[in-house]
Amino acid sequence: MARKRIICMLIDDDFDDQEMFGHALKHLDVSVDYVTANDGEHAIEKLKADPKLNPYFIFVDVDTPKMKGVECVVEIKKISRVKNVPVYLYSTYADPKILKAGRENGAVDIVVKAHNMKELEQTLAKILKQ
């Protein structure tokens, strides 16, 4: 059976987190084109500049330089091509205030950064099945 091909975007300024996220995606039963951006401004520029970039899911680190996670969600939702793409906040902890603000601005949920690869794989597999 052919594996489903999707595009996943991670917006995170931590290169170790980007690498771990990419490795976790490779172990899932889907074919993933993985795109990263180092901050919200970089992500918005990428999304606006490349009309072929149509992520299936977007994960936004809550605390990146230049543009915080919730603000980035707001800007993503202004881009008509991707406004209906599920956006998840990505953070070291699930701050209820940030989650509330994120949901009010279009984020689906908050994903807590995993402590190990297996945990991250399980979290991503659960999200990608939706």
Description:
The protein has helices at residues 15-26, 40-49, 69-77, 96-104, 117-128, and strands spanning 5-11, 31-37, 57-61, 87-91, 109-112. The protein has 130 residues and is an alpha/beta fold. It has a 5-stranded parallel beta sheet, with helices on both faces. Strand 1, helix 1 and strand 2 (31-37) form a beta-alpha-beta unit. Helix 1 crosses helix 5 and helix 2 (40-49) packs parallel to helix 3. The model has no long low-confidence stretch (mean pLDDT 90).
What is this structure, in a nutshell?
The chain has helices at about 15-25, 40-50, 70-75, 95-105, 115-130; strands at about 5-10, 30-35, 55-60, 85-90, 110. Helices cover about 40% and strands about 20% of the residues. Helix 1 (about 15-25) crosses helix 5 and helix 2 runs parallel beside helix 3 (about 70-75).
Topology of this structure?
Layout: E1 5-11, H1 15-26, E2 31-37, H2 40-49, E3 57-61, H3 69-77, E4 87-91, H4 96-104, E5 109-112, H5 117-128
Parallel strand pairs: 1-2, 1-3, 3-4, 4-5
Helix pairs in contact: 1-5, 2-3
The rounded Rg comes to: 14 Å
Q: Which word captures the global form?
A: globular
User: What is the count of β-strands?
Assistant: 5
The strand line-up of the biggest sheet is 2-1-3-4-5
* Beta content: 15-25%
Query: Helical residue percent?
Result: 40-55%
Uncertain parts: none
Number of helices, where a helix is a run of at least 4 consecutive DSSP H or I residues: 5
Largest sheet: 5 strands, parallel
End-to-end separation in angstroms reads 19 Å
Instruction: Determine the mean pLDDT.
Output: 90
